[in-house]
Amino acid sequence: MGKQTGAHIVWDWNGTLFHDIDAIIGATNAAFAELGLEPLTLEKYRELYCVPVPKFYERLIGRLPTEAEWEVMDDIFHRYYAEHRVACELTVGAVELLAGWRSAGRSQSILSMYVHEELVPLVRGFGIEPHFIRVDGRTGPSGGSKAEHMVRHLGSLRVDPERIVVIGDAADDAVAARHVGARAVLYTGGSHSRASLEAVGVPVVDTLEEAVDEAERLAA
InterPro entries annotated for this entry (predicted)? Predict the structure, then answer.
């Protein structure tokens, strides 16, 4: 990528670069049906969603799922999502923003809680992998926070945390950024309502273009 200057962006994938909210809602409702729950609307999902995911389920059913329930629901979610993600596309404007950031001599990477072995070929299939100096998905069990994954991601990047801005669609992205001493910008096009994102105390934007502008400002 040549000489890297200015901010380094750590992009989230699901709900940020990858506009897959419809597949996620469908997968969530398929998992909820296993417990006899009514389907969620997008608005209700965004109002209640949180990480770790079992806590999200607790908000809906009044208790944490049992270990057996969690395993079944998690399996249903991922099977449904894998079938329906094929209809999803990158977020509008993402390709141009990634190319522009790279051509300006700045660096960027992806850290996602989507399983690593499936994330990498998906990113590669959209033809955007060359824009990133690293692409990391989740290793280990699902349902946890991104914070510890962020520690490992930054350790491999060798980038000063003060240069790093995390762009994601979830409060947990800001938590992970704070955990490593980085900044964050949250995008309203994914899993959370604007109100819940604003409660986190970091900049909140409605487009990825605004997110990139904010990243530049924060790292200036």
Answer: HAD-like_hydrolase_sf, HAD-like_sf, HAD_sf, PGP-like_dom2
Domain boundaries 8-17+91-219, corresponding CATH code: 3.40.50.1000
Label the pairing between strands 89-90 and 18-19: antiparallel
Confidence of residue 178 (pLDDT cuts 50, 70, 90): very high
- pLDDT for 54 equals 84
Return phi, psi of residue 197, to 5°.
-70, -40
CB 133 within 8 A of CB 101: no
* Mean predicted lDDT score pLDDT of the chain: 93
Q: What is the residue extent of each domain of the chain?
A: 8-17+91-219, 21-87
Could you identify the residue written with the tokens 């965004």? 46
Q: Is the pLDDT of residue 216 over 50?
A: yes
Q: Annotate 72-97 with b (16+ C-beta within 10 A) or e (fewer).
A: ebbebbbebbeebbeebebbeebeeb
Which residues have CB under 8 Å from 77's CB, separation 6+? 27, 28, 30, 31
Q: Report angle CA 130, 152, 52 to the nearest 5 degrees.
A: 105
Map tokens 């999803």 to a residue.
88
Contacts of 155 (CB under 8 A, 6+ apart): none
Q: Does pLDDT of 4 surpass 70?
A: no
